Task: structure prediction
Amino acid sequence: MHPLTGFPKYPPDEMARRAAEFYREIKRRRTVRDFSPRPVPRPIIEDCLRAAGRAPSGANLQPWQFVVVTDPAVKREIRQAAEAEEREFYERRATPEWLAALEPLGTDWRKPFLETAPYLIAIFYKNFDLLPDGRKVKNYYAQESVGIATGFLIVALHLAGLATLTHTPSPMAFLNRILGRPKNEKPFLLLVTGYPAEDARVPHITKKPLEEIAVFV
Ligand code: IYR
Result:
């Protein structure tokens, strides 16, 4: 153990200003489904991934794997596989209740953004790691940890000026096949990122107010 260094000590008014400023910024974030093909410099994505990698995790085992896809042929393969699953979902698997819940978002099985957006970041969680000799090392709270890292990544991309879409075709096992990932890596979600299209449209949605999402006891 060694002393905690570099922890900022802001006066309360500075803390309040910073909290309010972050809220004002993150309030602007919208999930986008219409992406521009405009390229995004790779170092931006790399820094956002570094930020994601700073997330806390069970026993600090960092049970995540990010696979960044830019190759148009791989994107096309992912789109085709995702659309096949999504078609099944929208036309057969989804309950009427689920479809009704999605209605305001205007989503359907078509996922052109999987080819249009410059980056698809496939995020995997690992319940265990595999050592080179084949032994397994157990990870703890893998899904929670990867959920937190994904949150960091979404915020980092937003702050960098990029739009994101958390896409969850289900099931997502095709990602292991297409991306050649080992079986201990389970797909968590597909994060689509890039600039929004000039004519991007978003649904009218509301967020619950503080009183509905938090209690102080
Ligand atoms: N995976 C499907 C359906 C879908 C499900 C939820 I929950 C959403 O918030 C949005 C979509 C799709 O991506 O269209």
Q: What stands out?
A: The first helix runs from residue 12 to 27.
